[in-house]
Task: inverse folding
């Protein structure tokens, strides 16, 4: 009788596959990354190691002793006091309590403070409150405490912002007007991020976490890189983490460039050098999960992409691991069998410096 192993599909559904089926999916996922990114394949030994990790009988697995890596967080304390539709568990608590619980009960290596909306723009009207909270948290904590938020350039377009929505303009074939709207929005976003972080640094912040760079396309990344550059110039010792929104930089503008490189269409191993050039300390690459493919297919693809990004990066890589990224199924609360196996593979095969 052929032995079958329990895996997940990209949508979290349980499936049972033979070793031959798992190996086929690993190879197909790897081949997809190699084809899209024009990057090297994994070796035969690395595929064997991935197979071993996936088929380990334990419900959850861990890295080998001595290969532990630090963990950084996004979303701040919202995972405790936020609602369940926003990755939280609905525990009434202040942000100070949430930060201290992460440090003293969860053993977090770093922590971040974030606004409930978790975007930079909505922080502006309540900046005094954010500064006060940062100062109080810093007085009660030892581990590095960053300020975290999403660039979220979409908030600068109508009906939420002052600039015409590029999508509406493009539908009317007003391509140049759409590009100009993105350029205006990018300038305002850079200005707002720098303004907010100047005040958070004055309140004792240890640094900043840019979460989901590029979610609104290449203009979003353009604005973020220029904000990183400006902050690095003003604060040489500031800790800057730059996490991406997706594996491929969407070219909504199509012609925006940083340091002579057009941003549209960049894969993780091509994004890493630009993030380092801007002045970030840590790069957070992303590989998206295909919900119609198996965990083996997604993990083979994700490890291939991230291994290339680690090799291309001159700064440490903390890979994004969670719901729908890093080979992990798309679930609000990802299953521990997939999370632990994908994390072990990223550390032991892709060579990431953190998660």
Result:
């Amino acid at each position: 009788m052929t032995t079958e192993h329990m895996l997940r599909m990209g949508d979290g559904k349980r499936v049972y596959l033979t070793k031959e089926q798992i190996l086929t999916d690993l190879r197909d996922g790897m081949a997809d990354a190699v084809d899209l990114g024009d990057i090297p394949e994994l070796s035969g030994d690395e595929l064997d190691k991935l197979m071993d990790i996936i088929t380990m009988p334990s419900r959850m697995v861990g890295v080998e002793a001595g290969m532990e890596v630090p963990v950084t967080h996004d979303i701040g304390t919202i995972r405790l006091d936020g609602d369940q539709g926003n990755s939280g568990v609905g525990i009434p608590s202040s942000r100070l309590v949430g930060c201290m619980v992460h440090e003293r009960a969860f053993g977090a290596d770093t922590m971040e403070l974030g606004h409930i909306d978790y975007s930079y723009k909505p922080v502006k009207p309540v900046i005094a409150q954010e500064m006060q909270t940062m100062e109080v948290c810093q007085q009660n904590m030892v581990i590095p405490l960053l300020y975290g938020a999403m660039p979220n350039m979409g908030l600068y377009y109508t009906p939420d912002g002052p600039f015409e929505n590029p999508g509406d303009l493009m539908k009317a074939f007003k391509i140049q007007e759409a590009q100009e709207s993105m350029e205006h929005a990018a300038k305002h976003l850079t200005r707002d991020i720098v303004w907010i972080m100047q005040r958070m640094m004055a309140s004792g912040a240890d640094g900043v976490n840019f979460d989901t760079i590029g979610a609104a396309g290449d203009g979003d990344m353009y604005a973020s890189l220029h904000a990183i550059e400006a902050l690095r110039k003003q604060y040489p010792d500031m800790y800057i983490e730059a996490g991406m929104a997706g594996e491929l930089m969407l070219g909504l503008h199509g012609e925006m460039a940083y340091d002579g490189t057009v941003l549209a269409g960049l894969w993780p191993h091509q994004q890493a050098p630009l993030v380092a050039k801007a002045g970030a300390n840590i790069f957070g690459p992303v590989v998206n999960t295909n919900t119609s493919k198996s965990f083996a297919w997604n993990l083979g693809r994700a490890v291939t992409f991230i291994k290339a990004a680690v090799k291309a990066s001159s700064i440490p890589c903390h890979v994004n691991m969670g719901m729908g990224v890093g080979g992990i199924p798309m679930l609000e609360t990802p299953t521990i069998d997939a999370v632990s196996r994908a994390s072990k593979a990223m550390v032991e095969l892709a060579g990431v410096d953190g998660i």
Summary: The CA atoms of residues 13 and 254 lie 37 Å apart. The chain is about 45% helix and 10% strand.
